[in-house]
Structures are given as structure tokens and as C-alpha cells.
């Protein structure tokens, strides 16, 4: 009789453990999908559907400095990034390209 009580405790503990793991998994999924963030704060999901900012290219000048081409909306900026300051070397407008046009030029 004592063995039956011990097995029932083990099975009950296992069921509680699996239930807690399942609840943690569902909570992580809900956070990833943005359900928790939107319900609590009214904000949208963590990942933006359209990104306005992208880094087109980078090049190291020396160990402390780097040149970066940053694109924001339809404007490109060439930046010199250093350990102590950043300098805008050039800025110019770029015609908008569709994502399909970018894929055709890459292949």
C-alpha cells in the first residue's frame, strides 16, 4: 500500500512539472508573437514589419575607424565611425527600389 502512495505522488509531481513546462512554453510563444506586449502595454509586436534603417556596406579603415553606408528611407549616409566621434562624410538621395529588384541584382 505504501508503494502505491509513493507512485501516485511521483505521477502527480510529474504532471505538475509537465504542466509548468507547458505553461512556460506557451508564455514564451505568446511573448514572441506579441500577444503579451500588446495586451499589457497596448504596443505592437517586438518585430517591425517594415524596417526603415539598414546598413548597406562596411569597411575597416584601420583598427579604430570604420566607414559605414547607412540607408534610411530613400537617403544614404556615408559615416566615418571612430572610437571617439562619428563624422558624416556624405549624404544623398537614393531612388526607392523594390525588394524584387534587389533580389534580381544579387543573383
Automatic annotation (TrEMBL):
Organism domain of life: Bacteria
InterPro entries according to UniProt: Flagellar_biosynth_FliO
One Pfam family cited in the UniProt record for this chain: FliO
One Gene Ontology cellular component: membrane
Alphabetically ordered keywords of this record: Cell membrane, Cell projection, Cilium, Flagellum, Membrane, Transmembrane, Transmembrane helix
Subcellular location field: Cell membrane
GO biological process terms on file: bacterial-type flagellum organization
Primary location: membrane
Transmembrane segments: 12-31
Protein name: Flagellar protein FliO/FliZ
Organism annotation: Maricaulis salignorans
Amino acid at each position: 500500500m505504501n508503494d502505491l502512495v509513493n507512485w501516485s505522488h511521483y505521477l502527480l509531481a510529474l504532471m505538475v512539472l509537465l504542466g509548468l513546462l507547458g505553461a512556460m512554453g506557451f508564455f514564451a510563444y505568446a511573448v514572441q508573437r506579441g500577444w503579451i506586449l500588446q495586451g499589457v502595454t497596448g504596443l505592437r509586436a517586438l518585430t517591425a514589419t517594415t524596417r526603415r534603417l539598414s546598413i548597406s556596406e562596411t569597411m575597416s579603415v584601420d583598427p579604430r575607424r570604420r566607414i559605414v553606408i547607412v540607408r534610411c528611407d530613400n537617403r544614404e549616409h556615408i559615416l566615418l565611425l571612430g572610437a571617439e566621434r562619428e563624422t558624416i562624410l556624405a549624404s544623398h538621395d537614393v531612388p526607392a527600389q523594390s525588394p524584387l529588384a534587389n533580389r534580381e541584382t544579387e543573383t
